[in-house]
């Protein structure tokens, strides 16, 4: 062996070294790299497709089955015959989302769209891997468009447990107000899917779900802030409510205004109660005066409605003496005589006594 090596030239030894390194890379490093890509999902799409194809060689072929996840959402495996599609159409399905690669499919996209009359969205994704973020967004928009119209949507991959389950979970978390955990539990309660919540959250498909939910929540907050801060959509500042109309039992305000030539009107507020205000506004009326009889009875007469036999009820009221001014009259017959009373001179005075005014 050593003699053989001694006979080799340096160029031959270099060539043998290159071959040995290539063998080590092919037999050791490349399988380890494929295992790393399959476990983490970090790698170019072509390497992921190679890993998917190698793993599918030992995987058993799944039968066609599906489950109803939501009112218009169906999740299942790959349809392989025309009868499978007709069964889906009988359930109200009018659109389909496919996450298989081209080498996995047995029915072409043209056949599904033209011959079966189903709206079709094809998002090629390697098996055992998670869809790309832009593919998840496209799937969620596609599902939302048909669900809003009341049309059923069938989402599938090869077994209906990994890639397709990721899209359905993201849709529920986005438009059904669910957290990723609640959406996963909801799907798991309807259909047995891949245990992507395990591995301490390091599963490649679960990380894709969490990343989509974070980005979707961020876009929603930014859109809400932009809508709130937009001048055209700014919420007007609410005005305080108008005070209620004053009632009768409320206090009234009376304003007294005094105007002056030198200064403006001076206003003073006086608070008054309703009863005081009524007194102030009502006109001042004099109290009624008692009416006196037009004719005074004499000594022998009685007033109407009075018993003549009860003299004790008579009350004599004398009128006060009136002081009249003394008038001076010039009488040619009496010389310079002055009389205090013009109507009753001394010579013509009546001898009868003056009757009382009231009895």
Automatic annotation (TrEMBL):
Ranges for domain Tyrosine-protein phosphatase: 65-215
SUPFAM superfamilies documented for this protein: (Phosphotyrosine protein) phosphatases II
Compositionally biased region (Acidic residues): 339-359
Region (Disordered): 223-250, 281-359
InterPro entries to which the protein is assigned, alphabetical: Prot-tyrosine_phosphatase-like, Tyr_Pase_AS, Tyr_Pase_dom, TYR_PHOSPHATASE_DUAL_dom
Domain Tyrosine specific protein phosphatases, first and last residues per copy: 134-191
Keywords: Hydrolase, Membrane, Transmembrane, Transmembrane helix
TM region positions: 12-36
Positions with biased composition (Basic and acidic residues): 328-338
Domain of life (superkingdom): Eukaryota
Coiled-coil stretches: none
Annotated GO MF terms: hydrolase activity
Record-given protein name: Protein-tyrosine-phosphatase
């Amino acid at each position: 062996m050593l003699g053989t090596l001694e006979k080799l030239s340096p160029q031959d030894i270099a060539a043998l070294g290159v071959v040995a390194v290539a063998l080590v890379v092919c037999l050791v490093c490349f399988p380890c790299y494929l295992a790393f890509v399959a476990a983490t999902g970090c790698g170019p799409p072509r390497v992921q497709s190679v890993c998917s194809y190698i793993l599918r060689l030992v995987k058993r072929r799944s039968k066609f089955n599906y489950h109803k996840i939501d009112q218009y959402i169906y999740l299942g495996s790959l349809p392989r015959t025309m009868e499978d599609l007709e069964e889906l159409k009988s359930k109200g399905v009018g659109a389909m989302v496919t996450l298989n690669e081209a080498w996995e499919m047995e029915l072409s996209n043209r056949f599904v769209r033209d011959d079966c009359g189903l709206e079709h969205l094809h998002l090629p994704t390697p098996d055992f891997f998670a869809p790309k973020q832009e593919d998840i967004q496209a799937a969620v928009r596609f599902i939302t468009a048909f669900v809003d119209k009341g049309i059923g949507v069938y989402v599938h991959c090869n077994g209906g447990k990994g890639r397709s389950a990721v899209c359905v979970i993201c849709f529920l978390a986005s438009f059904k107000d669910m957290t990723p955990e609640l959406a996963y539990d909801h799907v798991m309660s309807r259909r047995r899917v891949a245990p992507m919540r395990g591995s301490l959250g390091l599963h490649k498909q679960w990380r894709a779900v969490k990343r989509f939910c974070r980005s979707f929540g961020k876009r929603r907050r930014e859109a809400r802030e932009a809508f709130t801060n937009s001048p055209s959509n700014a919420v007007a500042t609410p005005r305080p409510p108008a005070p209620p109309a004053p009632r009768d039992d409320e206090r009234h305000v009376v304003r007294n205004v005094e105007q002056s030539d030198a200064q403006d009107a001076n206003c003073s507020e006086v608070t008054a109660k309703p009863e005081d205000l009524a007194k102030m506004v009502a006109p001042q009326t004099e109290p009624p005066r008692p009416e006196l009889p037009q004719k005074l009875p004499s000594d022998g007469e009685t007033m109407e409605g009075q018993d003549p036999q009860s003299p004790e009820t008579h009350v004599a009221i004398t009128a006060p003496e009136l002081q009249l001014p003394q008038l001076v009259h010039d009488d040619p017959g009496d010389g310079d005589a002055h009389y205090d009373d013009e109507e009753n001179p001394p010579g013509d005075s009546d001898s009868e006594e003056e009757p009382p005014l009231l009895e």
